[in-house]
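TODO from last week: model Rhodanese-like domain-containing protein.
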Amino acid sequence: MGYAGDISPKQAWELLAQEPGAVLVDVRTRAEWAFVGIPDLANLGKKTVLLSWQNYPEMAIDADFAGKLKAQVGDVSGPVLFICRSGARSRSAAIAATAAGFARCFNVSEGFEGDKDGASHRGQRGGWKFAGLPWIQD
């Protein structure tokens, strides 16, 4: 597997609430954060770390992702949870962070918006928003 495992959005919220050192890293793009929203951890006294795994518009993986992650998170021993739109990019980021020395990396498997429904819309089948967890939009 190469990382600590997949967890649901509700499990992610519980872990963030229970472990003071737990961090949530949103690996989507700046446009996604601005237009779709981000997880709001204010009720937990935390902020979501915004760090793109891939840079728009080329969508090339950020070669310095691990270095930037270490600079923003610091503690490599605590739980680091990764979230993206649907769980694919965040899984790759969790694997890379584990390889870079982070001990407990989790993938939020349903992502922020979940999978597409029958009409090819997101937000109706799984995901952080669908689970009713707090989020904000600029």
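Done. The chain has one domain: 5-132.
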